[in-house]
Amino acid sequence: MHYVSKGDENKQLMLFIHGFPEFWYSWRHQMKEFAKDYHVIAVDNRGYGDTDKPTGAQNYTVDRLVEDTREFIEALNKKNIILVAHDWGGAIGWGMAVRYPELIHKLVIINSPHPAMFRKRSLKQFFYSRYMLFNSLPVLPEFAMGANDFYMFDNAFINGDGRPLLPDSQMEAYKYTFQKNGLTAPLNWYRALIHQLPYKYPHPKSFQIKMPTLHIWGKKDRYFTSQLAQVHEHVDDLTLHYIENCSHWTQMDQPDLVNKYMRQFLANK
């Protein structure tokens, strides 16, 4: 498992977990901000970047991804960590908080709905989620996303105003990484999910989050409706911050606000 580390290894671990189509670099603003106070680590998830890429969609279920994270934390001999997760990484974050709460001190989730919220999905969210069905198809998504010099990054990475989110040099980092490592393994996350449908979630109480949780949500998300951020009934100790003019790529679109809200949340012991 490939990861990037910064800060004093004797300090509390702050672990960052990215979404799709991203890699550890998506957390560069937060790593710079928090490295002076924490041991910060951003991972490349299973199938991404320089981390191993087992073949077959069956190797990319949420259960396996959660276990990757547990094993990684235990291999570092860490407990009482700050877990920060975005998008698909949030599925891992929520899963870790439910299954292994003894490893987590505080949870930060960014634009990623709690699993039980999908039981309340609306027609609007069904429309928003149509990309998941496309991403689960064989072969075609790889061809479409890799076409025209990975133009899908130019189309996806836009800010709350609809303008390009990243300068050319940073966009090239994403294109280079996925050109080098391929798209099949990341897309297998979607294929594994679709193959499991209809997924029978346990009773909502089994998804109850006990530790203090910060939920940050960019309201101009093109993939998830803002209503999915309303997770109060599933989280005992929730702090929710909406960011009005912010895209799905919240930690890159509004890094100063994200860092500010995280600072405020972490200051409350």
From TrEMBL:
The keyword Membrane does not apply. Residues 13-255 form the AB hydrolase-1 domain. One of its GO terms (molecular function) is epoxide hydrolase activity. Keywords: Hydrolase. Belongs to the AB hydrolase superfamily. Epoxide hydrolase family. This is AB hydrolase-1 domain-containing protein. It comes from Oppiella nova.
